[in-house]
């Protein structure tokens, strides 16, 4: 039989971390070591660094998930935040488990651009669109990530006659429309792109590939 104190330790959430993509920021944690505590509920609070009072996140109060969306609560992207989680099982509450400090502007990962490709006889025209943040303008449209960072696009071409993994960087810059010329007719080419933040020296993953035959 577990003592309450033991159960308190065993259900305490582990590895509380923020994960963020394009400012969609969620708090994640792993359950405590007590595998038999299946009815465990979790309670989430957050605060801005330097504030003394914690705020309850109502949507994540007594939940069974191991993730909590704090996008709206972390919308001041230059501020550092903390999150914390406690667990309850069989009427016993664990202590709080604290995240590391999280500053959205410095730590959010950026997504790849959206890529569309049109071609003519010997060239490909590539249209690029930056990812959007979850935050909206007054008119209701989502604010693009280019509002928050100086972003560059990196465009790579894959010549399918050569090696699939052989991506050649053909453009880096801010243009949303890029033309690649002097390509060979009848050859299949694929385009992938990344978003790059020079200030933080951070790149997105590759976009999904867009392929065309000239």
TrEMBL record:
One of its GO terms (cellular component) is plasma membrane. Keywords: Disulfide bond, Receptor, Signal. PROSITE patterns: FN3 (PS50853). It holds the Pfam family Interfer-bind. GO terms for molecular function: cytokine receptor activity. It comes from the Eukaryota. Residues 12-107 form the Fibronectin type-III domain. Belongs to the type II cytokine receptor family. PANTHER family: INTERFERON/INTERLEUKIN RECEPTOR, INTERLEUKIN-22 RECEPTOR SUBUNIT ALPHA-2. This is Interleukin-22 receptor subunit alpha-2.
């Amino acid at each position: 039989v577990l003592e309450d104190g033991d159960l308190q330790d065993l259900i305490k959430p582990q590895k509380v971390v923020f994960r963020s993509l394009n400012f969609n920021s969620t708090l994640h944690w792993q359950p405590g070591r007590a595998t038999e505590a299946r009815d465990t509920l979790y309670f989430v609070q957050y605060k801005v660094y330097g504030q003394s009072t914690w705020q309850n996140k109502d949507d994540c109060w007594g939940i069974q998930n191991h993730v909590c969306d704090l996008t709206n609560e972390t919308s001041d992207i230059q501020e550092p935040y903390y999150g914390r989680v406690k667990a309850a099982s069989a009427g016993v509450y664990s202590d709080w488990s604290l995240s590391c400090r999280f500053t959205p502007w410095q730590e959010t990962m950026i997504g790849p651009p959206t890529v569309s490709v049109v071609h003519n006889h010997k060239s490909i025209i590539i249209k690029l669109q930056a990812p959007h943040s979850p935050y909206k303008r007054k008119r209701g449209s989502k604010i693009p990530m280019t509002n928050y960072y100086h972003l560059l696009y990196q465009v790579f071409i894959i010549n399918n006659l050569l090696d699939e993994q052989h991506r050649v960087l053909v453009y880096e810059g801010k243009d949303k429309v890029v033309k690649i010329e002097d390509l060979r007719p009848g050859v299949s080419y694929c385009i992938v792109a990344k978003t790059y933040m020079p200030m933080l020296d951070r790149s997105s993953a590759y976009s999904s590939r867009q392929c065309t035959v000239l």
